[in-house]
Amino acid sequence: MTLPIFPTLPGQGWGVKKTPTFSTRVSTHVSGREVRVPLYAHALYQFELSFDALDSSGANAALQSQSLQTLMGFWMSCGGQLNTFLYVDPTDNAVTAQTIATGDGATTTFTLGRAIGGYYEPVSYVTAISNVSVSGVATTAYTLTAPNTITFAMAPPGGAAISATFTYAYQCRFLDDVAEFENFLSGLWKIGGLKFRQVR
Prior knowledge:
By secondary structure, the protein is mostly beta strands.
């Protein structure tokens, strides 16, 4: 099943919030000592967008004709919180020659990920893959399986660096079952605080 992609519209506001979130269970003893247990292996991301102007009449070509209907229809097709979609973050959607693992001579399936600073995490959903290399040699002897794994026909040898070039998106759902669109001028609408979060 192909997931729908969140639409890119010219009326989007500049302010975008991207919030990585962990979940940790903290138990505090009367002595003040703590026991902390991580509930997430990796962060989940939450996004918040606003659209300062959306066209409903078709008269504002610079805003994409009927962009209100595009965004509202997309939200409604997701059923609010019900269904998932892909969000392509324009600032975080591709890697080149990213090292994803080291072969051990037995493992054939690997999860694709990306490094951000000194932190490495699996990507949510691979949208396209253009190059896979084992020890610097390009190969096509693999299959890509949604959302984010590749399986080699033969296990890469022990010590072999596995790298890939690919694009990715975040698999998300909306956080609310209500979306408030405001008509502020004839044929012009806006919405603020449109929130959604990554799901696994």
